[in-house]
Every structure is written in structure tokens, then in C-alpha cells.
Amino acid sequence: MEKLELKYGVNPDQKDAFVFRKGGLPFEVLNGKAGYINLLDALSGWQLVKDLKKATGMAAATSFKHVSPAGAAVGLPLDDVERRMYFAPGELSELASAFVRARGADRMSSFGDFIALSDKCDESTARIISKEVSDGIIAPGYDEKALEILGKKKKGAYTVIAIDGDYEPEVDEERSLFGVTFHQERNSYVPSESDFENLVTKNKNLPESARLDLIVSLVALKYTQSNSVCYAERGQTIGVGAGQQSRIHCTRLAGSKADLWHLRHSEKVLSLPFKKELSRNDKDNVIEQYLSDCPEVDVLSEWDRYFTSQPEPFGRDDKIEYLASFSSTSLSSDAFFPFEDNISRAYRSGVRYIAEPGGSMRDESVIGKADELGIVMCFTSHRLFHH
Fold it and tell me: Are the C-beta atoms of residues 126 and 144 closer than 8 Å to each other?
């Protein structure tokens, strides 16, 4: 039995923390020292990107925070607007593009994340990660230069984990809670084209781009604390609503994040006249306040702290009008929608494609609302609760 000592448990006063496995651990800590939550995020994140790579054939990345993904993406090339949104450098590998997208999905939530990559970490990806506030990374390997770059992060304390990319755990899994052991079969579901065969709405036009986005959102949901819904667009999540007791609250929470992602495309945001000394994280905070209807800091009245000149206001009516221009977002839910209010709220955030398990007593009402709004909806028959 191989055993790995951890910094501490979930909290610093929970000592004697370690992980172990009969037959040896499938990963190795190459740099730093992992914590309990670090490994929960690392192993969940690795499963997510492995599934995403299997489902799409593309390099994948995820930014994990407190056992749910803040963002997940595949390596579609960034367009010019996305490069400006994400403050991205010129040359990016496919893996680096996946990471920039995953981190850019919700940069506020990604602050201090644990990163997972589907492929060997290359220098291009490592250089971008080196500039982010992050607790650690897991990948199936590292180029020599990438490992050198990451090893210098956090004054040499950055946690770098290499996992055996071929490792497959046992079919059955167990966990202990309050002295009681739970046993179940692992959730081995990976979405595929067959999940989109049962199109239940009148509109059955599901383009390839939406199929990719629905796969991204379904894989993300598999590793998101329930209840959860996930909005996706352009091969990445753009809004994850995790751990809410009410599904409409999931839809609202994730929808508000999707709205912020869409608003960041606006030239008003892209052209904000930031002072040169502002860090990337400071810029993220300022953008969040600038776009908020109830900001903690009125950045327009204190513009000289952040900007070289006073930026143009982005009023509520202007934002509503701008958001109405988006109409290619996909949404997946980890369980059925019990009421049509979820569909109406999702539509307001540009959702035109939905995947959910189906099986509600009110399925016909939900389908009817989707038909009324022209949304394409498929029933996958797969519930994706994760706890």
C-alpha cells in the first residue's frame, strides 16, 4: 500500500491527513506538497478533461475550485475578440487555447484554482499558467521547459502532479462519512452523439457547434456538485451553477455568469482604458464591478484609480439590448427541469439548445415552452447528479 502525506485535511486543524491505495497511487507529486482539497480538485479535474478528450478528440483543460469546475474547455483557436477578452498572448498551442478558455470562463471564480490538462503540459501552456494565481496543476506529463517554469511558481511551492494517463480505477468505488462506508458503481458515462438522437421539440436543427457545446456542458456537469446546470458556447463552459437546492436558482446563477461572459465581448469592455500598472487580476475585478448592476465599488466615480480616462457607462438598458444579440448558447442540466421557468430564464441568456435527462411529470409543459421560444431540446435519459 502506497501512502502520501498531505499538508492537512479540509481545514488546517484537521491533522494526520493522507491518501493511500493498495497497489500504489496512480500519480506522483513532482513539486510542492498537495493538500486534501487540492487532491479532490486534481482527481476530479483529471477525470473531467480525460472524458472531454475522449468525447471530442480535442485537447481539454479545466479550472477547478472547491470540487466543482469554474470553467472547462476544449482547444478551439481563439478569435480576435476572445484574445482581447482573455488578455491572451500571440502564439498558443491547442492545449494552451483550451486552458485560456477554461480559465477565462469565470476568472473571478478561478482565482486560486487547481488546473487539470488532458495532455502533456507544453511550454506554451506553462508560460500562461505561470502568470495566474493558482494552487496547482495535474497533467499526464510535462515538457522539460514546462516543468522548469512551473517549478518556480509560488517561490517553488507550486503543486505539480503527474498522473498516469492510462490509469483506470476499479469499477466499484467507496467513500466514508461519519464512520459509515458507502459503496456504489462508478459513473462511467461519457456523452456521445447518441445522446442527441431523442429530439423532443418541433425544432430539430441541432448544428455541430451546439453538439460540441452540449458535450462540453454534459461532461462538466458530471463533475459539478448538484444541483447544477451549465451554459456553454464556443467549446467552453460560460456559466456553471453548482450546488443549488433549487434548479431555477442554478439556472439563474449560471445564467448571470453567462451574461457576464457575453457582456465581456462588448467593445465598451474590451476598450476600457486600464492603467498599465493594473494586474490582470485587478482588471478582472474592475470589469466585474463595471458590469455589475449592484457594484461594491463604483469604478466610474473612482475612475482615476483604475483608468487613464473616464470610461463610457454601460447602463442596464444598454446591457439588456446588447445581450439580446446572443442566440447560440447551449445549456445542459444534470437532472430534469421540473418547471418551464428554467427555459424562459435560459432563453434570456441566449440559450437555443438544451440537453436534459427528461422524466419529469411536467415534461410536456417544459417542451411546450421550448417550442414557444424556438429552442431545440433533447432528452438524454442520463441523470448526472454528483455529490
Answer: no
Catalytic status, residue 66: yes
pLDDT computed for residue 66 by the predictor:
95
Q: Is 53 a catalytic residue?
A: no
387 included as an active-site residue: yes
Superfamily of domain 173-263+323-379: AICAR transformylase, duplication domain (3.40.140.20)
Question: DSSP assignment, residue 196?
Answer: G
Alpha-carbon gap, residue 112 to 65, rounded angstroms: 8
Q: Is the pTM of this model over 0.70?
A: yes
Ranges in the chain annotated CATH 3.40.140.20: 2-168, 173-263+323-379
Q: Is 265 a catalytic residue?
A: no
128/115 Cα distance (integer angstroms):
12
Catalytic entry in 31, 38, 227, 342: 227
Q: How confident is the model at residue 377 (pLDDT cuts 50, 70, 90)?
A: very high
Q: For residue 229, what are the β-bridge partners?
A: 241, 333
Please say if the pLDDT value at position 90 is more than 90. Answer: no
One of 50, 53, 65, 369 is an active-site residue; which one? Answer: 65
Phi/psi for 333 (5° steps) reads -125, 140
Enumerate residues 6+ apart whose C-beta is below 8 A from 59: 53, 74, 75, 93, 94, 95, 97, 98, 117, 118, 119
**CA dihedral of residues 301, 305, 308, 312 (deg, nearest 10):** -30
115, 129 Cβ separation under 8 angstroms: yes
- Measure the CA–CA gap between 309 and 70, rounded to whole angstroms: 32
The CATH number given to 2-168 is 3.40.140.20
88, three cell numbers: 491572451
Backbone CA torsion sign across 5, 65, 40, 121: negative
Cα–Cα distance measured from residue 230 to residue 115, given in angstroms and rounded to the nearest whole number: 19
The grid coordinates listed for 245 are 437546492
**Which residue among 66, 145, 154, 249 is the active-site one?**
66
Average pLDDT over residues 162-178: 95
Cell numbers that stand for 44 in this block? 476530479
Alpha carbons 25 and 173: distance in angstroms, whole number? 15
Q: Rounded distance, CA 356 to CA 336, Å?
A: 6
Query: Are 65 and 225 a contacting pair, CB within 8 Å?
Result: no
